[in-house]
């Protein structure tokens, strides 16, 4: 266990992607002492790889989104990770989900029209929800809602158009065979991380900032806060004096819900190639997205989100599995039930240190990301996926925000030294 000093130059709160990004950047500067304080007994936060059946399963982030612009792609390669570049067939999956090629083409055209409408609406003065752009009674409205629960963690009525269009998607998505979570474990190696050390209060009245933890009080010259917006909005981490702007901004950027169920698939599965993508239903938002035999593994990875995922979390793994088995049997016949068994599942909303999956902006709250990211008093810095202006909701957006916050903290220290 990392020793617990009484004082450091920079304290980083949270050892998720943002905290690891910040700590790595700070560690490059030999002149500052650093400590990362992490509530969990592991690093990675919402990026976490497990091996319930001898192959990696990412409980949280799995895809290197915008992989050709993602700084973690070259870092993973340098660290010896094997990058799988096969593009996911997210667009063409309807033909494998019981729809005709004509229906799939109609879906693709409808989806593109909706994306164009989002861009057009985003330049209007007043923000609106993605749902307000739906064609009333449109054939694919439920599927547009389902895809929003996967992409945003929330249905279309909850999501700001202005914020949505700021996300930069290059359209290139890669995976790491060893798991995205393993990459963050490797990136955290050698960093000073105090695990199982939740910070409950940050007192910045005096010249030294005081952080209250179960292991005692730590004094720090600078603090980088990377906890999820769910923790800030609920004031589970308190500031003294209070920071109402941060609390309000965090509430405008709630975490949506997305979860995963990992299923083992035994025997052969005729007609289904490795890395096949499916949706359970094209007419209900309460449906799962499936990766069958991902990376040629004997498994099915199921993904589901939104209000419905929150209720499935309460039913537990049994409820998730019986729903997935029912949808898969409807698509492939009842025999598939004999080939599948549950391996593991997630419940990110119930996770006390996440309380959700990734942030979206409520309509009218697109500017909250900048409010969240703004430093306070040139001593408190904020990072985390929700503070990223263009790569929010992702692991690389979080990582980059951590690096940016670390550079701002270093610049503020060097200003102080010059004074
Ligand atoms: C199901 C799912 C699928 C996803 N898929 C993808 C994907 O394919 N690609 C992608 O790029 N992203 C994906 N994401 C999103 C990505 O995982 C997150 O955006 C990113 O990991 C967030 O990193 P962070 O550092 O901002 O926050 P976190 O990872 O939440 O890190 C914050 C850390 O702070 C700690 N903490 C909280 N409170 C305290 C406290 N009081 N004191 C000390 N420590 C505290 C937490 O334990 C946590 O470790 C997915 C997420 C989920 C849940």
Describe the structure.
This protein has 419 residues and is of the alpha/beta class. The protein has 11 helices and 20 strands. It has helices spanning 17-27, 72-78, 101-122, 141-151, 161-164, 180-188, 229-233, 244-252, 306-332, 368-373, 395-418; strands at 7-13, 34-37, 49-50, 57-58, 63-64, 83-84, 174-176, 193-194, 201-203, 209-213, 216-225, 238-240, 255-256, 258-265, 276-279, 289-292, 299-305, 340-345, 358-359, 380-382. The strands form 5 sheets. Strands 1, 2, 8, 9, 10, 11, 12 and 20 form an 8-stranded mixed sheet that branches. Strand 9 (201-203) and strand 10 (209-213) form a beta hairpin. The model has no long low-confidence stretch (mean pLDDT 96).
Distance between the termini: 37 Å
* Distinct compounds present: flavin-adenine dinucleotide
Query: Whole-number radius of gyration?
Result: 22 Å
Overall 3D shape: globular
| SS elements, strand count | 20
On the 0-100 scale, what is the average pLDDT? 96
Structural category is alpha/beta
Task: Tell me about the largest β-sheet.
Answer: 8 strands, mixed
Tell me the strand percentage band: 15-25%
Low-confidence stretches: none
**Share of helix, binned:** 25-40%
Count of separate DSSP helical elements = 11
């Amino acid at each position: 266990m990392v020793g617990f000093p009484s004082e450091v130059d920079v304290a980083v709160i949270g050892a998720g992607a943002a905290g690891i990004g910040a700590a790595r950047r700070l560690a490059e500067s030999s002149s500052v002492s650093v400590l990362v304080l992490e509530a969990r007994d592991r690093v990675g936060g919402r990026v976490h790889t497990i091996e319930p059946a001898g192959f990696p399963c990412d409980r949280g982030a799995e895809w290197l989104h915008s992989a050709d612009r993602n700084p973690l792609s070259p870092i993973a390669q340098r660290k010896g990770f094997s990058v799988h570049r096969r593009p996911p067939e997210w667009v063409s999956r309807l033909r494998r989900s019981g729809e005709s090629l004509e229906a799939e083409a109609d879906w693709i055209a409808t989806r593109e029209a909706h994306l164009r409408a989002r861009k057009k609406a985003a330049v209007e003065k007043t923000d609106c929800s993605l749902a307000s752009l739906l064609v009333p009674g449109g054939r694919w409205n439920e599927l547009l809602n389902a895809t929003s629960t996967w992409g945003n963690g929330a249905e279309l009525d909850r999501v700001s158009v202005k914020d949505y269009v700021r996300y930069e998607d290059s359209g290139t998505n890669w995976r790491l065979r060893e798991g995205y979570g393993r990459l963050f474990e490797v990136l955290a190696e050698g960093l000073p991380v105090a695990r199982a050390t939740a910070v409950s209060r940050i007192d910045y009245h005096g010249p030294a900032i005081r952080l209250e933890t179960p292991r005692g009080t730590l004094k720090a010259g600078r603090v980088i806060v990377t906890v999820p917006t769910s923790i800030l909005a609920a004031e589970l981490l308190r500031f003294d004096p209070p920071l109402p702007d941060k609390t309000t901004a965090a509430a405008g950027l709630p975490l949506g819900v997305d979860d995963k169920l990992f299923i083992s698939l035994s025997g052969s599965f005729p007609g289904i190639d490795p890395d096949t993508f499916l949706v359970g239903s094209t007419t209900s938002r309460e449906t799962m997205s499936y990766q069958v035999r991902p990376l040629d593994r004997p498994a099915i990875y199921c993904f589901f989100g939104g209000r419905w995922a929150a209720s499935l979390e309460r039913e537990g793994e049994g409820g998730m599995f019986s729903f997935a088995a029912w949808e898969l049997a409807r698509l492939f016949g009842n025999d598939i039930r004999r080939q599948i068994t549950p391996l593991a599942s997630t419940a990110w909303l119930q996770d006390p240190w996440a309380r959700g999956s990734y942030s979206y902006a409520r309509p009218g709250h697109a500017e909250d990301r900048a409010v969240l990211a703004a430093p306070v008093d040139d001593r408190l810095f904020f990072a985390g996926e929700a503070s990223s202006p263009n790569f929010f909701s992702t692991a690389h957006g979080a990582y980059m925000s951590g690096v940016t916050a670390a550079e701002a903290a270093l610049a503020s220290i060097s200003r102080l030294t010059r004074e």
